[in-house]
Amino acid sequence: MSDNAELDLRHGGLVHHFLEDSGKASPNSQAVEDAFGSWTYAELLAHSQAFSAWLDEKGIGRGERIVVQLPNVRQTVAVFFGACRRGIVFVPLNPGMKPFHLGSVIADADPRLVIAEDETAAARLHDLTDLPVFALDTLWPDVERLRAEKAGTEPVEVSPEDLAVLIYTSGSTAAPKAVACPHQQIAFAASSINAVLGYRRDDVVFCRMSVSWDFGLYKVLISTLTGAKLVLAGGEPDIALLKSMRETGATMMPIVPSLASMLTTLARRDTEGAPTVRMFTNSAAALPQATIEKLREAFPGVQVVRMYGQTECKRISIMPPELEHERPDSVGLPLPGTTVEILDEDGRSLPPGEPGEITVTGPHVMAGYWRAPELTARAYRRDEHTGAMRLHTGDYGHLDEDGFLYFVGRRDDMFKRKGTRMSTVEIEAAALDIPGVTAAVALPPTDTRDLALVVASDLAPHDVLRRLAERLEAAKVPAICRIVNDFPLTLNGKSERKQLARLIDGGDR
Prior knowledge:
This is AMP-binding protein. This protein has helices at 16-25, 41-57, 74-84, 99-109, 119-126, 136-148, 183-197, 214-226, 241-248, 257-269, 289-298, 373-379, 424-432, 461-469, 497-506; strands at 30-34, 37-40, 65-69, 89-92, 113-116, 133-135, 163-168, 178-182, 204-207, 229-232, 252-255, 279-282, 303-308, 317-318, 333-334, 339-343, 356-361, 380-382, 389-399, 405-410, 414-417, 420-423, 437-443, 452-457, 480-483. By secondary structure, it is α/β, with parallel strands linked by helices. Helix 2 (41-57) packs across helix 6 (136-148), helix 7 (183-197) crosses helix 8 (214-226) and helix 10 crosses helix 11 (289-298). The protein is globular and about 70 Å long.
């Protein structure tokens, strides 16, 4: 955090105050743009208030939930803030989520109603639930009517402790798992993140991430907190991405490794000149150093910020932008106002340099898992000395003498082979250091196969393993290497490990 960075906590811990404050301070500034048009802050505020009034007409009350499966459009932002300002819980689901998961997630969220993109999507959802399902394009004329009547402008009682959002996360089982996110935790997290990153009112935030994912949702939050302009992208074809960034004047852009690789590939072929991006922020998985360097080459003067976090507390650490060239193996410093501690298996605090479980305390630690007390009790535990709620991440790492955090791997990433403890993270990092390897996933050994590596590369498998042996101890070199042309990705842009494991175990090429 820079010396003059301060947490902006004027919002009083209520998420919708982000929009209301910017709506009053900069009513005529551009707030949000999608493929179909844009709204000023005054227009976004008015639409959110009108949607709030629509919810009131439907009899939805404080603490009840609405499930929303919508694309990145302006109306999604208005729906989010409109729900928040009535104390109604916003439950966003990725538009790509399939019926297999949709039915169980909707049942788990126990909402009062569901909103889909259009009549076709609504019809599919009608087959999964007996709840009322509304298509956005058919309900929105009612919202416009209420906006014309200036409905929904009256204040309503919402507490900072009220839930604002349920974020459903992917897990190792098919059972739904939602992180319960109250207003005050979300508001603190957004403010603390911005204290480090320094979004500005003149920024244009180009977001290709779905608002159903917290990485995308927090771009909505931080943009409105600072009065910046948010561009909701994703509808354009990949080949037109740089053009869209140029035309919108993008200055801030969240990325995941797969998107970063696409950007560098497009930039090599582009002849129009780099968009004026001043900062990329990375999440989901570690960004290879080679990709970082390519981004800096393709976008002169850009800062590439490394971050680490979990939905359970949103963000854990950020490498301060002014230190982006230092400690390339670190994921940065804990958020302002929070504490990261490394614990051993007995819960004892470990000194700098000693690896253990990463634990987090602070006002950003969420309220646990929705209707899952046993799961919550395992991850969220009271510090016996301070009484503060501590998140046990299940991730492993260490701190250095200056308080910088180093991520070693997730619990499922850690394993022993030939008597040596290792993680998939270090194997993947070594593979990505090999020229010609653009993506890599290491798969731990199972009862039926040895340690395996899947890479995207023009190299032969034996060449990859030979060069890997030059970088790693013998025990850490996989026995199997498979080359693929395209990596399957999750809805959030992460590598789909289960599908890659099936490829290896099934022997498919």
